[in-house]
Design a protein that fits this description.
The protein has 267 residues and is of the alpha/beta class. It has 2 domains: 184 residues, Alpha-Beta Barrel (TIM Barrel), CATH 3.20.20.80; 52 residues, Chitinase A, domain 3 (Roll), CATH 3.10.50. The chain contains 6 helices and 14 strands. The chain is globular and about 55 Å long. The C terminus is likely disordered.
Length: 267
């Protein structure tokens, strides 16, 4: 029997009620790692309960011992009946690596799940490693196969991103200019381009010419491409997915999250 898909949905406290009736696990965007370091929770409203914690480190100054902070995280998870935590660590710093390693050990002893960015996978051997779904080249299937070989098939999660980027051609760095959904819709409306689908990237794309900046290549996702990325991950044995509610809310049907009259119990 195939493993059941698990979708973690990072969600703001005021949006939590919008997940009612969906077959998902909430990941609470309510915590940050501040100076000290200490754990801080956004004030106001009812404290979250069940699901998992999302830990932001943007205000961390890089100073202080990791052990007391990790103890704060464990106490909060116990108090809120969390079954794990997502480390939203965009930077790679030695103190943050120490935090990831300490939490990995502590969570593994309790049977909790820790979710870490790919760059932290080496220092948290029990954690689930989040691989971004967005690529500008290559093959998503090959990327995920390589990740499962490196980290182990049971450790890889696909972090879904509904992205849109505008690349200048040629693009030596492989990086594009991020587009908002409004900017993307504006380009599609103004240019009426022929839109194609890339099986390798599991994304849609089109090209256009600008008098000012020359040739452009626009790569973007929608609900259908996200569903195809999910299917690609399933084919290599990955059944764990993360997608922020702001990006998932318009494509719950394509992702198979809607369960009318049925809601997933929050662990």
């Amino acid at each position: 029997m195939a493993n059941k898909d698990i979708f973690l949905i990072p969600v703001l406290p005021q949006q939590l009620g919008q997940l009612q009736g969906l077959d998902v696990l909430p990941a609470h965007l309510a915590y940050r790692m501040g100076r000290g370091p200490h754990l801080f929770r956004s004030g106001g409203g009812t404290p979250p309960y069940g699901g998992v914690m999302v830990l932001d480190c943007r205000e961390f100054d890089g100073f202080g011992p990791p052990d007391p902070f990790c103890q704060e995280v464990v106490r909060e998870c116990l108090a809120r009946n969390f079954s794990g935590a997502v480390l939203d660590f965009e930077l790679r710093l030695p103190p943050l690596e120490q935090v990831a390693a300490r939490l990995d050990e502590s969570f593994a002893r309790r049977g909790w799940e820790l979710y870490v960015p790919e760059s932290y996978g080496h220092c948290a051997p029990h954690a689930r490693v989040m691989i971004p779904s967005a690529l500008s080249g290559g093959s998503l299937a090959l990327r995920l196969e390589e990740a499962t070989e490196h980290f182990g098939r049971g450790r890889v999660a696909l972090a879904l991103e509904k992205t849109a980027e505008d690349f200048f051609l040629p693009s030596p760095t492989g990086g594009g200019v991020p587009l908002t959904r409004e900017e993307l819709d504006g380009l599609l409306e103004r240019l009426r381009p022929s839109v194609f689908y890339s099986r390798e990237l599991c994304a849609r794309y089109f090209t256009y010419m600008s008098r000012e900046s020359g040739a452009h290549f626009v790569l973007f996702d929608d609900g259908d491409t996200l569903a195809r990325k999910v299917e690609t991950a399933r084919q290599v044995g990955i059944n764990l997915f993360l997608i922020p509610w702001e990006q998932a809310r318009d494509c719950t049907r394509e992702l198979g999250l809607s369960r009318p009259g049925q809601s997933r119990p929050i662990r």
